[in-house]
Amino acid sequence: MTGEALIDDDLVELLRVLAHPVRLKLIFAVRDQELAVGQIESATGIGQPLLSQQLGVLRNARIVETRREAKQIFYRLKPEALAPVRALADQFGASPAATTSTRDASASAAHFARILR
């Protein structure tokens, strides 16, 4: 499969959502654990209303899942949500980049993939 086969509108939209620094910070906060909104706010230092707005973007992009318990809403990363980005990173590691050696390209892709896991 070529890299071009992996590029579609859904992947481009996912990358656009991930490119925002606040959203990326939120993803890292919930990547290994489920957190209530208040816990996310404490862990990230991102206050309202920006927190609610950006969690809504992640929810609409189907990157996070929610669960309600009484008045609290909990967020967690959907395990399969970042699979297209992992596949894209693997493609970068599978072929040498024009300006780097094969070994350097593979190491960079592996590092990027570790970040997303």
From TrEMBL:
Keywords tagged on the record: DNA-binding, Transcription, Transcription regulation
Stretches assigned to the HTH arsR-type domain: 3-97
GO molecular function, one term: DNA-binding transcription factor activity
Source organism (scientific name): Sphingopyxis terrae subsp. ummariensis
Ranges in coiled-coil conformation: none
Xref: Pfam families: HTH_5 (PF01022)
Protein name: DNA-binding transcriptional regulator, ArsR family
Superkingdom classification of source: Bacteria
Gene3D superfamilies, sorted: Winged helix-like DNA-binding domain superfamily/Winged helix DNA-binding domain
NCBIfam families: HTH_metalloreg
